[in-house]
Amino acid sequence: DDTTLISVTIPEGCEGIEEGxxxxxxxxxxxxxxxxxxxVGLNAFAGTRFDQYYSENExxxxxxxxxxxxxxxxxxxxxxxxxxxxxxxxxxxxxxREHVLLRKISIPSTCIEIGWxxxxxCTGLTEVTVPGNAKILGWHAxxxxxxxxxxxxxxxxxxxxxxxxx
Length: 166
Hints:
Layout: E1 7-9, E2 16-17, E3 30-32, E4 39-40, H1 49-56, E5 65-68, E6 71-75, E7 81-83, E8 90-91, E9 104-106, E10 113-114, E11 127-130, E12 136-137, E13 150-153, E14 160-161
Parallel strand pairs: 1-3, 2-4, 6-8, 7-9, 8-10, 9-11, 10-12, 11-13, 12-14
Antiparallel strand pairs: 5-6
C-alpha cells in the first residue's frame, strides 16, 4: 500500500509479476515491463491509476491492447473483434470483462492461459477460437457470455479447468 509510488520499471530478466505485487499503490501510473514478462498475477495492479487508466480511459490508447511483456493485460472496450497477436502467452484476469461490444475473439496458438473472468459478461460474444495449446482456462473465463454459440476448443481434454467455464 504505497501511496507515493508513481512509476515502476520491472528489471530485465524478470519473467513475472507476483499476485498483488503493486495492489493498492494508488498513485502508480506508469509501468515499464521487459519483453520477457510471461506472467502477471491476479490483482497485481488492482487499485492503481495504471489499472484504472486501462480499465476506463481508452481515448488515448495507441493500440487495441495493453501488454506487459508477452501478457495481454487489457483490451480496448470498443473492440468488436479481437485478433489477439501471435506471441501472446497469457491473457490476464478481467482483461476483457464486460466488453459488451465484443463479438468475436481469436486467440493465438502461443497462448497457454486464459485468466479468471477474462471474458466474463461479454454479452455480445458469439464466437471464440481457442487453440489446443492453451492449457489453463481460468475460473468463470466465459461466464455470462449468453450469446456464445460457437466455442472452438480444439483439445478441451488437455485443459486444466480452474472451475467451470460458464
